[in-house]
Amino acid sequence: MVSVCTGASKAATRGTGPARATGPSAYPSFASYVRARQPVLLRTARSLTANPSDAEDLLQTALTKTYVAWERIQDHRALDGYVRRALLNTRTSQWRKRKVDEFACDELPEPDVTPAGDPAEQQVLRDAMWRAIMKLPARQRAMVVLRYYEDLSEAQTAEVLGVSIGTVKSAVSRALGKLREDPELTPVR
Length: 189
Prior knowledge:
Blueprint: H1 2-14, H2 30-48, H3 52-69, H4 79-97, H5 119-135, H6 138-149, H7 154-161, H8 165-181
Helix pairs in contact: 1-4, 2-3, 2-4, 3-4, 6-7, 6-8, 7-8
């Protein structure tokens, strides 16, 4: 089936190939072609996807590609092959791009809504945290900022600062210990 579709789509753009409709002007317009062939093409699209809605979307995409190429297609007798090839290519592209499978479920997995704190209190906490971080020695402060504010890994932090990973681990551990003991941050625990 694939080789037949390939031949038909190449024939559609070159103007050669087997005649499938009643004549070269069987479809004077794109709209007349869609009206005449949509049920057959939709069945083809449904054979490529499990979901009827996806099949309709797939057909719409393939018909859009056909509409764009309508003037370049010389032999309108091979339009079905052209559209089938567009369906297959589009479905293959969708399959390759899809990284996460979608699964239907009875209940939507809603996240637990945690009440957002008072924005003023959150700002007070951020300010207290920065004051505590500023009290750290420069090297520990740099490591804490790179690890937790810039979200770098231990290896990336070590590379940026030109130290070993073990140095980053021990310095960050000591810095976090100092932050835990800071009196401004004690009420937050």
